[in-house]
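Input.
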Amino acid sequence: ATAFERVPALAEHLRATGVKGVFINGTTGEGLCQSLPERMAGAEAWAKAKGDLHAILNLGAQSQADMVALAEHAAGLDLDGVAVVAPSFHRPRSVEDLVEMVLPVADAAGKPLWLYHIPALTHVGLDGIEVCQRLLQRCPTFAGVKFTVADLLQLQAMLEAAADGGWQVAWGCDELMLPALA
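Output.
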């Protein structure tokens, strides 16, 4: 038996407890620790089981070629969006580097694209607002950012920029949820 056989039961549990969405292959490292075939099998399992859950699939990988392969696979699945996290080994050194890395992935997926901005784990210290603004200009499918920065002033600045720019922000620091709501 594979872990993916448990996805339908997990999806049903999430729906029954009021959860509205899932971020597949996110920050617990499950995506980056799996092979491409495992990631594709997991994406297929979630796409089949998600029902009315809003499902975003993280395509982040250490190589752009792997991200594009995952994006091409995701294009044929019933998912509500895809996300890209910057590689943490050969890191983009500028906003333009990151945007150029993301564009072919977004094109291959053909779904709403989310930037997964988590500099504490990627060690990519680029300005998240600037990256989002450039993606908004250059990527027709850009939808938003999963913003995982443990600085409430940066969160406020991102929320204001998103309101002006027309993209969405998902907050990724669960441990700071109460102060962030304030």
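The beta strands are 21-24, 54-58, 81-85, 113-117, 142-147, 168-171.
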